[in-house]
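Worked example (supplementary).
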Amino acid sequence: MSPTLFVIALFIFGTIIGSFLNVCIVRIPNRASIVFPGSQCPNCGYSIRFYDNIPLVSYTLLGGRCRSCKTPISMRYFLVELLMGLLMAVLFLHFDLSLVFVLCAAFTAALVVITFIDLQHQIIPDRISLPGIPLGFLCSFFLPWNTWLDSLLGILVGGGVLYMFALGYHLLTKKEGMGGGDIKMLAMIGAFLGWKGALATLMLAAITGSLVGVLLIVLKGKNFKYAVPFGPFLAAGSFCAMLYGERLINWYCSIGAP
Ligand SMILES: [Zn+2]
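After joint prediction of all chains, the assembly is encoded as:
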């Protein structure tokens, strides 16, 4: 099979995974089972048939509406399928078909679910981040950028640095800043990417997060106090750190060197 066909096949496979991730995004915050029952329209309870469950295609054909009651279905379904398809293609181009690819795809899926739950509910579910910490540690035995010691330090640095920030912020302002969910999520990222990866992630997330924060204040006025969830920035940052972490750290160190 030619590489182009492989990329297309993995994109399609990614959209199918994305379709399953949509189920997780809806059900995990409600503490519901992600296996049973099958998908239903949240408005009329219409059981979604398999032919209405084809990623990207069904949403487009039905015009983003339920077949039965015509209630609009959230754009998120389409976006998550598209995003996961694209990310799988990117991962394949970067890692080829390998065990590292499979582990990174699983990690990416967790990041996508966390991102969309955090955007909607402003929480990062423990059901993903907590098991993610020991799973990330196990992965470190198979990942080229990680030793088990790097991973262990990653958990400590990832969890610890953010905890210090949160504590400092709380002491200074008497306000709740960084959530506990962010701390557990960065500990999971540290387990998977190692301590350097955790720091690179935090740097990227802090830069992009402040840029977006400033942009929102400019666009929505000075009194804009809406808290921007940090999880999506940590997710995007760790995905970039996974692909380019080493180069990023070398570049950063080279600025400091005379
Ligand atoms: Zn319906």
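Two points are worth noting when inspecting this output. Residues 41, 43-44, 46, 66, 68-69, 71 surround zinc ion (CB under 6 Å). Residues 68 and 203 are 47 Å apart (CA to CA).
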